[in-house]
Amino acid sequence: MRRLRKRLDDFGTTMEPRWVLEPAALQEARPVYELLDGVAGRDSLAEHEAEALFLLACLHWYRYQSLPAGQNAADLVQAVGLTQMLLYLAPQRVPPSLLALLHAHTPTSAGSAQTGGRSPAARPASARTGGRIPAARSAPGRSGGDAPAELFRQAVALMGGAERSGDYRVAGQAQALLERALAETPSGVPERLHYLSALGRVHRDQYLHLGRQLSLPAAIDAHRESLESTPAGDPERPTRLFNLGNVLGDRFEQAGDVAALDEAIRLLGDAARAASADSPVWMIARVNLGDRLRERWQRRGEPADLDRAVDALAQAVSVRADPLVVFTYATLASRRFVASGTDGDLDTAIDANRAALAAGLSEQREGLARATLAGLVGERHQRRQTSADLDAAIEAYRAAAAGPRLDGLDIGGLWQAEGKLREARYARHRRAEDLHEAERLLRAAADGTSDPGERARRLGDLGHALGRWYADLAGLATLREARDVLTEAERLLPADHPDRPDLLNNLGTTLRELTNLAGEPDLLEPAVVRLREAVAATASSAKLPLRLSNLGLVLQELFGRTQDLGILTEAIDVLRRSVAAAPPGHPDRMLGLLNLGSALNRRTELVVNAALPADGRTAPEQARAAALTDAEQAVALLREAAELAQREAEPVDRVRIARTLALSHLLRHQLSEDPATLDEAVTLLRQIEQATPASAPERHQLLTNLGNALLIRFRAGRAGRDAHEMLTVYRAAVAALPVDHPERTMCLNNLAAAVEEIARATQDAAPDPVTGGPGSTALPADPTGIVPAVSGDLPPVDLSEAIDVLRAAAAIEAAPSLLRAGAARTYAGLAAEAGDLPAALEGYTTAIELLDLVAWHGMDLDDQGRLLGQFPGLAGDAAAVAIALDRPERAVELLEYGRGVLLTRAHDAGADLAALRAREPRLAERLGAAQAALDRLDPRPGPSSIAGLPVPMIAGTNVDQVGSERRHELALQRREVLAEIRRLPGFDGFLRPPPFADLAQAAGNGPVVLVNVAARRCDALLVDEGRVTVVPLPELTLGELHLRAAYFLTGLAEVTASGGDPGPVAQRRREAFRRRIPETLDWLWRVVAAPVLDALGSAAGPPDPGVVPARLWWCPTGALTLLPLHAAAPLGGGPGALDRVVPSYTASLRALIRARRAPTGRDVPVTSALVVGMPRTPGLADLPGAAGEEAVVRRYVTDVRSLTGPAATPSAVLGALPGTSVVHLCCHGTQDLAAPARGRLALAGGPLHVRDLWRPAGTTAALAVLSACDTVRGGAALPDEALTLGTAFQLAGFRHVIGALWAISDTLTVQLCEDLYAALAVPGGLDPERAASALHHAVRQVRAALPDLPELWAGYAHIGP
Q1: What CATH number is given to the structural domain containing 1354?
Q2: Where are the transmembrane segments (predicted)?
Q3: What is the pTM of this model?
Q4: Cβ atoms of residues 324 and 122 within 8 Å
Q5: Which of 162, 285, 492, 612 is the Cys-Cys partner for 456 at CB 3.0 to 4.6 Å?
Q6: Residues 66, 49: one domain?
Q7: Relative orientation angle of helices 411-429 and 387-402, to the nearest 10 degrees
Q8: Which helix (H) or strand (E) is 1203 found in, with range?
Q9: Is there a domain that residue 342 lies in?
Q10: Lowest-confidence range among 9-18, 368-377, 1013-1022?
Q11: Strand, helix or coil at 1170?
């Protein structure tokens, strides 16, 4: 009976049909029926028998009300029979509710019973309807002729019918009946209180179901009178406390009456405390109390109310796990956690939601509880990072998403949350199914919403996952997709959205990764922009350190690309902020320490490698002291990072930090020469190498780093044990890679460097055969010039091994072209030193051929120049070996292939590709794509290595590994495409250098003299009439040339400077320099010009009076390009070069051939010209001669277009050049000897640079007269590349260019122009083909007037045919 009563109480409390309809209900009723066997023939019942009969009657009445019409007839018959038996045998046990039901369903009311049907589903207890509570022990008196009781029964019957039908229009009749019963029942009669309670319930039903607002105060009054008349201790008092509390709660809902809410809470609390544990009121009062406390908490925000609400419901569910009550409890517990955020409340909420799900909820509530539980467990995982919570959260989200699609449930949000959690589990356990499922869920979540903001958030999560795990998915394709996904999210997400900083941080980081992996350096600047914006928008101090660290890392990489010191300085400042924002214990402090230490290493490398840009203010010793401070700070920072890594980092991060710390030690050693720092680096790298498995893919990198450290220590101390270990680890690094691996070239280069170093040390240690003392090397290993003594036995090595190793390094096609070319040049030098000239020539040839890949034509001009700058004098060294082997034609070819690379490529390679595009655009596109990708993967120049080391100390990362594989693939693609192109008819020589027979065509109108300067030997190669004549120049040496060139340039700057110091000391200094200029011309005559002209014989002898001298083209190399070879003359008088030939210059034989093949327009004199003049330039001296020069041009040309002053902008000049036959520019010019591509003309609004003109023209022009300083001067850097304004104008289409090697006189140039144009003049206009002879005539005129001032006339030069 206890089990059955509990079931009926549960139904009465919740009105959930399952309590009376499930099979267990009838099973529990069966033994109760057995108690009643034999009672049918008796006149009375025992107490327990009456109780059993009452419970069974209630069960069948409840089932009748709950079953659908047509299925409830059997229960109605049973209910009526049991109630009639109870009324006959124990009438005192029949409550009014059962009596009303009996009267309504006796045979006289059969019609109504047939139409009753199922009563509407009662609202849950939490909705505070009160319900109908069985009260077997508290029913009113027996039925009979008592008029009030009969009125009461009629009223109850009416309301029972209303509950079944949902039609509450009979409530007015029930109200009238109860009011009559009350009127006829005097105060003090116990039944009156039952009538009052029933009237209160009728009024409440009128308010709830009929909308009668005035019924609510009447309900309150009735329940209040009933309660006030019920003494303490009365068993009905808890029910009446509950009833009044309920209707006062309704009053609060109706009118916002806070006083009513407070009283309702007090009454419901009293009811909960007064009710016995087995009373239905005990449960429902706590449920409704919790709900009212929740409402007051929401209104006032007092945590105590929410705590009381949760406690009340916790007490309820501790006794009986009613599903609805447990769900309500779980809901409030969850809200309390959201409000408090405490771990204890989080645990309570999780337990409550789990209990609710275990209790068996409706479909709707189960879905809500699962979603809530998933969020709570996910939050606990974020806080505590336990595997159990992670697994539970994933399962909860999966179950919630797999459930019914409830209204308002965001299924995409569930997928998103589960996807993020699966990604977190993949990060922990690396199970592939988690990663793939995470990707699927995140994609589905993003596709499952049309709201732009929400889609942006979900795309942000998808993009972050793809960018983080691209290497474990589809590699580069996945990383590119991550970039695209995050870019779309950036477009969709509003600028003020709180998630935007996270999105920008992830996008910037992805762009950086893509730069490294795919070799797309143009993405670095957009990455910096995104990360700067992310930092600026980051309000959370917890996230700021990581954002700053990411920005600093990208700035470092941008510096590596641009070599802009300001960017590196900004990176260091940003990273200092990152470390300062992450105090000890912060999870991102380690990363900030690592990145800041790395940035300080970069800046230190600049000083160690003598690559720090000079600012004119910082002395070298100050820069070195600052670098030492940087190195010491880096060591301290990285030591702290290493300590943190031991506790909280993955093994790969620990290795990365240790390698960076080792680099710091090495840099510090380079600056302080403290052997202890070097020892620390070696020890650290040994530990890393020993802890790395032999099968680890990065093992060759670790071995390389250790070998490099040992190499530095060996150079410093010459210890035999270091030599042995160094060779061992370098050889192991080589052995760890396949023969065609791209990074094998790096490892082979290192091994060769070690062999060479040991061989030099062995030579030093060997006794000199003459003196008996130790030998010596040509270059000491120590910068002080002191060669350390060898300690211990050195391993036996031979330089031939180094040559073989480097030859193998150069042959690996997939390796970076820069490293391959370096290996080839190095082994050529070693072979030449060893006397193996054929091998040396092979090496030099290989290096020169690789220049085409080192600086491919698709690169930026500055990048190409920087890369070629790493091979100074390469062509000269190669030609010197070819000459020594008596192969002069090969020497010419090598000089042609290895010099003027940029000029030739800009014209020929562009023309070749244009022809290919016209013939086979598909092949042209494939070749361009493969080469562009290779460009991006090849290393860029910059301070990335320790001084004296052949490769960077910190070898590649995982990204580098992927890049190596990509480089190998691209190299094969390029080779296959080139082979396919060269099989096309007419393309067999595509991108191949021409043979000597083709080059010799340059000398069709006179000899071309290539003056080769190299350390081995210096020679002139006279190309004339299809052959080459070698003229040895024994008095010309490379060392003396460099000294004289430096002195000459310094003197010229002093002599030609305007507005110099007028003092006597300065005057004497200028005079001393002025005297050196003729001395330099004399030296050039003796060591170069005279031997060459004499070798040419009569063709270059002094001409007869009135006879124009023969033409000759000079093509000097190296530093000789900076000197006026054309004006060489003996100091004591007598004919010089200007007296014996009409000189011109050419950058290369191919440049001369191109210029000569261009249309001349000889048949029609030129009648128009463009004049560009800048008489005034802000910040520079005025040029009054500009007007005079324009007047000269106008005298000889009838159609002159003038761009003068403000009209002479760079864009206007560039726009006017096409279609112009003759251009005359009079303005200031400047050459940057360190960066010749930045040579410029000062025009209105800005400069016109060499690089602005560095592209082939679509049309051909005749003559450019560059009346400006430095216009045909090259650079001290890249002297063989002919990066001058003159060659730029020739590339832009002008056959002839006249310019100046240095600063020229404004006044004197006007007169020179008069003589020049007079010599160019022909009837009807000008003949530009006379340019060389006209300039020769004009210069000789000035020389005749000012023979002792060569600085005023020797600087003018002609370029062209």
Answers
A1: 3.40.50.1460
A2: none
A3: 0.64
A4: no
A5: 492
A6: yes
A7: 150
A8: strand 1199-1204
A9: no
A10: 9-18
A11: strand
